[in-house]
Amino acid sequence: MKVLNFRSLIIFSAFLRVFLIVYGEWQDAHLEVRYTDIDYLVFSDAAALVVAGKSPYKRSTYRYSPLIAFLLAPNSFIHRSWGKFIFSVSDLLVGYFIRTILKLRGVPENLSIYSVIVWLFNPFTFTIGTRGNCEPIVCAIILWIIICLMRGNLFQGAVWYGLVVHMRIYPIIYALPIVILHDPLHFQHGKKPSIIEWSSRDVKPGASLGPDKSSNLNRLWVLFSSIFTRSRILFGLISATIFFFFTGLFFYLYEWEFLNEALLYHLTRTDPRHNFSVYFYHIYLNYEREFSILEKLISFLPQLMVQVVLVSRFARDLPFCFFVQTVAFVAFNKIQATVRMGKLHFKILQFFCMEVGDYCSILCVVLLSVAIDITMEQNEA
């Protein structure tokens, strides 16, 4: 009965998304304010250029991996809403992956179902995919990576991690906790890592993330071998191979235009509009003058420091660590912190709230998501 209930939730939420996509087509045709996200128009134009054998970067403001343009190529010869269906299916996968992760962590079935409901039927989430933003794909891949790591599937997790970093560069922030997770006592070959039942609240002050280094004579060797473990080297090599394969392939096809627009641009980007960033006012007042490369890069320093501190404390509780990392990333980001970026940390927020087993926590998740949705949509208006 519980499985049927879950299936009915997925089916009903799928019909909801189909309805919104159809309604969006009507609103775009009849009302002045469009339902479709402006980014979707950019994706569609880039996809049309790819179908015509041209570079997607001929479309101004397209600053994503060409994979997204190739994925939306059927927009040109099947239907212009093809991409919205792809993004909405990814959104449904996020709901399914949330339930899977919570089950692996021992959360009761009823709380897992409530968590899925909070995701699938929240206006904050289902409008993003149906309006045509690609963020649901990134969310789904990140959750699948967590599932792979929880099941001990290092190879598949590494492949998908390399792919998602290529698609959207910001998941690179999750590399450090994943590396720490592959501790020789924590992630052993052929066995599921203890992340399944791990809680950061169980860590005692001064607890080590590595093996006991009691022997003074072997201290250096033990330190070296604990850092460069088989699983860490394999994960790094596999994910780097996937990342550089796609990066090299598209560099071969589109040369420096791809590298500048899809990767390097995000390192030096400044945005004086639609901004919740802590750097907003400084950028707004000084936007007319050209910022130096040093000024643009130094803004990453506070973010880097916060990320290192958070990872060193919460790395073994991977979903929670991803959550606090994402919150810090959004808070200290120098470019716009919009509803799309907020979606990622809302997704991971549900994991540890549902583990508390407190219905008040579930209500807080719902209220928080509504508050984020209202404030960020006002910011984008």
Layout of SSEs?
Layout: H1 2-30, H2 38-51, H3 66-71, H4 82-104, H5 109-120, H6 123-131, H7 135-150, H8 154-167, H9 175-181, H10 219-227, H11 230-268, H12 280-286, H13 293-298, H14 300-314, H15 318-331, H16 339-356, H17 359-380
Strand and helix order: HHHHHHHHHHHHHHHHH
Question: What's the number of extended β-strand segments?
Answer: 0
Percentage of helical residues? 55-70%
Coarse shape:
globular
EC number: 2.4.1.-
Pathway: Glycolipid biosynthesis; glycosylphosphatidylinositol-anchor biosynthesis
Main location: endoplasmic reticulum
Keywords: Endoplasmic reticulum, Glycosyltransferase, GPI-anchor biosynthesis, Membrane, Transferase, Transmembrane, Transmembrane helix
Could you characterize the architecture of this molecule?
With 381 residues, the protein is an all-alpha fold. It has a domain at 269-380. It is built from 17 helices and no strands. It has helices at 2-30, 38-51, 66-71, 82-104, 109-120, 123-131, 135-150, 154-167, 175-181, 219-227, 230-268, 280-286, 293-298, 300-314, 318-331, 339-356, 359-380. Helix 1 (2-30) runs parallel beside helix 5 (109-120) and helix 7 runs antiparallel to helix 8 (154-167). It is globular, with a radius of gyration of 22 Å. The relative contact order is 0.11. Pathway: Glycolipid biosynthesis; glycosylphosphatidylinositol-anchor biosynthesis. Belongs to the PIGM family. It is an enzyme of class 2 (transferase). One of its GO terms (molecular function) is alpha-1,4-mannosyltransferase activity. It comes from Artemisia annua.
